[in-house]
Structure formats: structure tokens, C-alpha cells
């Protein structure tokens, strides 16, 4: 989780990713951020995020993102 939080903090150091639960809904993460995140997560966690995984609920919080990564690792 810490590695994921570091990736997010590098993108937006002003956001408290440990408590924010509406990253997409509140416009904190935009489409370019999502593309960057997918690339960083794929590289750092050795998982593939497919189009079916690109849903707002998977990107609305650090916890949701972490759960997505864990699920993809398990499926891997």
C-alpha cells in the first residue's frame, strides 16, 4: 500500500490519499492521471489493468486502487 501511496503523492502531493474517497468524483484525478497511474501500477506491481478494470469505483480511493492491484496480483 505504501508504494501505491507514494505513486499517488508524486502525482498530487497536496491530497491526503489515506482519507480521500472521491478521487474521481471530486475531479482530483483526471483522465491523464488515470493513464499515468495505470502505467506506474503496471510497472511497479507487474499487473495488467485492462479496460474492464478502468471503472470510477476502482480509482476513487487509494484503498480501492490497492484492492484492484491485489485482485490482479491474485489472478496473475
Describe this structure in words.
- This protein has 76 residues and is mainly alpha-helical.
- The chain has a single domain (2-75), classed as ACP-like (Non-ribosomal Peptide Synthetase Peptidyl Carrier Protein, Chain A), CATH 1.10.1200.
- It is built from four helices and no strands.
- 20% of the residues are buried.
State the CATH topology.
Non-ribosomal Peptide Synthetase Peptidyl Carrier Protein, Chain A
- Which parts are unreliable, with pLDDT below 50 for 5 consecutive residues or more? none
Number of strands: 0
Strand residue content: under 5%
CATH architectural type: Orthogonal Bundle
CATH homologous superfamily caption = ACP-like
Rough outline: globular
Count helical runs.
Answer: 4
- Total domain count: 1
Distance between the termini: 18 Å
The level of helicity is 55-70%
Mean pLDDT: 96
CATH top level label: Mainly Alpha
The secondary-structure element order is: HHHH
Radius of gyration, taken over Cα atoms and rounded to an integer in Å: 11 Å
Brief digest:
The chain is mainly alpha-helical and 76 residues long.
Q: Would you spell out the secondary-structure blueprint of this structure?
A:
Blueprint: H1 2-11, H2 31-45, H3 56-59, H4 62-75
Helix pairs in contact: 1-2
Question: Any descriptors?
Answer:
single chain; 76 residues; mainly alpha; Non-ribosomal Peptide Synthetase Peptidyl Carrier Protein, Chain A; 4 helices
Amino acid at each position: 500500500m505504501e508504494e501505491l501511496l507514494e505513486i499517488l503523492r508524486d502525482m498530487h502531493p497536496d491530497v491526503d490519499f489515506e482519507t480521500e474517497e472521491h478521487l474521481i468524483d471530486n475531479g482530483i484525478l483526471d483522465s491523464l492521471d488515470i493513464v499515468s497511474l495505470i502505467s506506474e501500477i503496471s510497472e511497479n506491481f507487474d499487473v495488467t489493468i485492462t479496460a474492464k478494470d478502468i471503472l470510477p469505483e476502482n480509482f476513487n480511493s487509494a484503498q480501492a486502487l490497492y484492492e484492484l492491484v491485489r485482485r490482479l496480483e491474485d489472478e496473475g
